[in-house]
Design brief:
There is one protein chain. 66% of the residues lie in helices and 14% in strands. The protein is of the alpha+beta class. A hairpin with a 3-residue loop joins strand 1 and strand 2. Pfam families: CorA. GO terms for molecular function: cobalt ion binding; cobalt ion transmembrane transporter activity; magnesium ion binding; magnesium ion transmembrane transporter activity. One of its GO terms (cellular component) is plasma membrane.
Length: 261
């Protein structure tokens, strides 16, 4: 394929070789270039793969980045089959994220102590944001590609429109998954805020009960002469009784106010 390397402009060739180049469709007099970026999963990590094609007046070529060479696909049918397979993988990827979100939802509703929620939420949120960004651009590029080649004799219009529809539908599915994640986050934060409010309420009640006890303990704990009950043998018992009475009185007052409010 040395011929093709010489035919393609060096600037365009660098775009084709670039593994992180975004989706784009370029029309030139001697050739056209289609670069389509699609997401895929490698282990637990989401990655983006750039698929570059060059179409001249003779054939259809795919650039193999691992071998750094052009592969002659010969017909538009092979181009369609290649992109269709990659698109199906993207659809399965988004479907697996939906399943993961459903499991998160069940775990969140069933388990009050879902401590790893934010870890899973952030992971899925990040992946969905990247998928939406890539598919949105890919959808626009495919639309431009189909419009340009629609009148070509060997162009499989229905086939490529089907791929275009799948990418658009997958993008909408990713958007729906993002909405589900946002709803789960709102529920999680509401429940966390409710727990926090209950904790603060409990601490406020305890503070209200122990406030007079601190005052009594501080008053009778002063290192001075003439304190009440200091000359009585059972003075400590009396002070203890006073503190217990204060605690009961404050608890009763708090319960009374709680019922009134």
């Amino acid at each position: 394929m040395k011929n093709l390397f010489e035919k393609v402009d060096s600037f365009h060739l660098s775009d084709i070789k670039n593994p992180t180049h975004p989706s784009i469709f370029i029309e030139e007099s001697a050739y056209d270039i289609l670069i389509l970026v699609l997401p895929y999963k490698e282990g637990k990590h989401l990655k983006m793969e750039s698929h570059a094609f060059v179409f001249d007046h003779e054939s259809y070529y795919y650039f193999d980045k691992q071998k750094a060479e052009f592969v002659n696909f010969e017909t538009m049918q092979r181009v369609y089959e290649f992109l269709n397979e990659k698109t199906n993988h993207v659809m399965k990827l988004v479907a697996s994220i939906h399943e993961s979100i459903d499991l998160m939802e069940e775990a969140l509703y069933d388990n009050a102590n879902f401590s790893n929620f934010m870890h899973y939420w952030l992971s899925n949120k990040k992946d969905l944001s990247r998928i939406q960004r890539v598919l949105t651009l890919g959808d626009e590029v495919l639309s431009q590609f189909i419009e340009t080649y629609l009148k070509a004799e060997d162009f499989l219009a229905i086939h490529f429109q089907d791929i275009h529809e799948h990418i658009g539908r997958t993008n909408r599915s990713a958007l729906l998954a993002t909405d589900k994640l946002n709803n789960l986050y709102n529920f999680y934060t509401s429940r966390s805020n409710e727990k926090m409010n209950r904790t603060i309420y409990l601490l406020t009640i305890l503070s209200g009960i122990f406030l007079p006890l601190h005052f009594v303990a501080g008053y009778f704990g002063m290192n001075s002469q003439g304190l009440p009950f200091s000359d009585i043998a059972y003075g400590t018992s009396l002070v203890t009784l006073i503190m217990a009475s204060c605690a009961v009185a404050m608890a009763g007052l708090i319960l009374f106010l709680k019922k009134r409010l």
